[in-house]
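Troubleshooting: if your tokenizer reports a length mismatch, compare your output against this known-good record of 113 residues.
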Amino acid sequence: MLAANILDDGARLWLIDWDYAGFNTPLFDLGGLASNNDLNTAQGTTLLETYFEAPVTDDLLHRFHAMKCASLLRETMWSMVSEMTSTIDFDYGAYTVDNLTRFRAAYSTFQQS
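Known-good structure output:
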């Protein structure tokens, strides 16, 4: 989920383009929201506490970090395929490098959690 896919019309929020949402655990969607929007640790904690309406446990945080990794790895692989197949004028190579770098950082955090 990307911030650009959440529209505010002044009366309510609208979620558009949720192709990858709802496949399994809500943590995948929350991890994707956090990783795609570069939420920091405090923002990620607030996201989890708001969604689950409870304090964050170490186990929940560990699973959240795993899903952030899964989301970033999916985005990296999608970009790699797009490098070879897309006709859109976009620098997929740089996007791949950026996501792979972010995945490696998230994976390091996951291993420490």
